[in-house]
Amino acid sequence: MTAVTDLRSRPEVFVGGRWTPSEGGELAEVVNPSTLEVVGTARLGSVADVDRAVTAAAETFEAGTWRDRPVAERATVLRGAADHLEGLGAAAVDLLTAELGCPRSFAERAHVPNPIRMLRYYADLIETTPSEEIRDDGAMRSLVVQEPVGVVGAITPWNGPLSSPVLKVGPALAAGCSVVVKPPPETPLTGYLLADAFAAAGLPDGVLGVVPGGRETGRALVGHPRVDKVAFTGSTAAGKQIMAACAERVARVTLELGGKSAAVVLDDADPATVARGVLPMALTVNGQLCIAQSRVLVPRSREAEFVEALRAEMGGYTVGDPFDPATRIGPLVSAAQLSRVEGYVERAAGEGATIVSGERPGDLPGYFVPPTLLLGAHNGMGAVREEIFGPVIAVVPYDGVEEAVAIANDSPYGLSGSVWTSDEDRGLAVARRIRVGMISVNGAPQAFGTPFGGMKQSGIGREMGPEGLASYREPKSIALGPVR
């Protein structure tokens, strides 16, 4: 296969393990959300392209082309894909930054290296995780075999244009599945890097398809009768529709959905420490993260102190060109996202919240919303209950720890959260009471390889870690007869 040399020009889709002309897909211009300049073009996939990609994936799975490869060979391909991505260096970082608009410093620190690490993690894990075991009850024996779930349809969002696909493709390929990925139309260029990486690593033709597109393309993938499992990251509303569609044929699902995470600040916490720790957790990727700590719960008796600390720390968040090393807040991804976020802020003001906002850059035409605090907020406000997906933080006062826990749990979501205190044991006790899939004490980062996912309407299943691999394998019991 001819190697792609221009990462910003993608006139074809990746179907059947090859770059091929689309059957009716649009050639879309990719726009830098900071400057509104065109940074490249990418072919979006059509419904017909999805069908071709799924058919190729199903045929390779049924033939055992990849499924039956020795584990060591699968691991070698995953490591080769990681090596390819790593070899792109600054080109991958710059491409992702130009498409998404997140600060380049974050793309360089996390958005690109984390997927590389994840591919190597699953290469190692599949080599050390048993695929079968003998069980007996003293009289009879059975062989329990872990088999790949089949053809996986992976639908991924624009806010993690490389990491989110890898969270699905990595463990799915490690398990022996075939995969069709649908990246979003906002960041198709970064999504296509995954096709390059696995083609360069020697993945057999047909095992992986990459077909960016919008809702129609996604519906075609979810509803395809030869897709055995759908792995989706996105909104809760879309997740509900996907779950209903998959129920028609009892297809497996992993859903990583929305969040409205609470940072619970206890009365013994230091305001400056909280502000320094919470703001990055709320504003990373310009607030466009499902795990953003967008509700900050503070003791009413010390509300003024914490508000002042947050306001002062927020003043150091420069809004501007994501390629400028000084920038900490870049643009939102699109005009639609800008309108959505501004609408929530206006609505909160109408409901009585006080708006404290940073400065918008005056020399850039892009989709900028400065970091914003909503003061005087409460859990009855839409901006406090609903996922905004922008750099907007609601400060909610409470009276007593019992009320703090109740407010944190009074949400349809249960994805992430944090507890802030000078007493780690006290923080752990409160963290245990908050119904979320992931939580930290004093902003401690999660150990690599721990499960990622949520409770309630934040999703079903887990990604990352051994749990992520297990979700792409099905146990099968084979009765062998009497114990010998």
Automatic annotation (TrEMBL):
Q: Which positions are catalytic residues? A: E256
Q: What is this protein called?
A: Aldehyde dehydrogenase
Entry-linked PANTHER family: ALDEHYDE DEHYDROGENASE, ALDEHYDE DEHYDROGENASE-RELATED
Q: Which domain of life is it from?
A: Bacteria
Q: What InterPro entries does the database record attribute to this sequence?
A: Ald_DH/histidinol_DH, Ald_DH_C, Ald_DH_CS_GLU, Ald_DH_N, Aldehyde_DH_dom
Pfam families annotated for this entry?
Aldedh
Q: Which organism is it from?
A: Pseudonocardia nematodicida
Similarity-based family: Belongs to the aldehyde dehydrogenase family.
